[in-house]
Amino acid sequence: MPEDKASALTILTTEHYTLQMVRTATITDATGRAGHLLTTISASMIALGFVAQVVPLKVLLTLMLVIFAGLFLIGLATLFRTVELTIEDVQAGLGINRIRHIYGDLEPSTREAFVRQVHDDTVGVEVDAGQTGWRKARRPRLIGTALGVAGFVNLVNGLVAGVITGAAAGLLGAGLTWSIVIGLLVAVAVIAAFGVALGRIARRGVAPISTRYPRNNQ
To answer: How far apart are alpha carbons 161 and 179 in whole angstroms?
Structure first.
């Protein structure tokens, strides 16, 4: 029996380390992709700022339409990849929670030493994700998701879509005020639509994992 426990601990610690490396890789990849997106948008805006000094308004709006359409496509690729990375991170975190629970079963005296979660239910995963700080909100999970990397990229994509729409409205003869209003409405609509869609994708990605150690199973 001691040999079995030692073997189990070796296997568990190896898997724990592997899952921790997965979490590190996914977080690094997601933040890196978001940073590259912001860098590309910033460089494009700087270039447009220089061009705006020497070209007519219609030419500038046309350039904005073309460039920001390309940025929106890049943003979509970044967005869906960050959602995939978020799912991988949640899965890895859920696995680590399970391993901590088994640590406690193998050696009950260690249970009080864990400051992170030992439950793999929804509440346990959300606690590890830091979403319980919004417990008094009506939809804490929605707020916590919106504050993640995928939510941030979705916000940026919505603003890019608003710029595209505003530029198109300007080319069609709409005034400055109307172009801004239309752009803002489209930005809000895109952010909301993709936020709902990505939330469903994320839930489907995590749903196949069954709960083995819920909070009521001490």
So the answer is: 13
Give 75-86 pLDDT, tens digit per residue.
Answer: 999 999 999 998
Round to the nearest angstrom and report the end-to-end CA distance of the chain.
23
Q: What is the pLDDT of residue 1?
A: 41
pLDDT of residue 133: 61
- Burial code of 119-157, b = ≥16 C-beta within 10 A, e = fewer? bbbeebbbbbbebeebeeeeeeebebbbebbbbbbbbbb
Q: Which of 138, 154, 130, 136 is nearest to 202 (CA)?
A: 154
Which residue intervals of 107-129 are DSSP H helices? 122-129
Single out the residue of 27, 160, 141, 20 nearest to residue 87, CA to CA.
27
Say what the pTM is.
0.84
Nearest CA to 83 out of 138, 21, 34, 132 is that of 34
Q: Amino acid identity, residue 151?
A: G
Angle between helices 57-106 and 2-51 (to 10 degrees): 170
Integer Cα distance of 88 and 81 in angstroms: 11
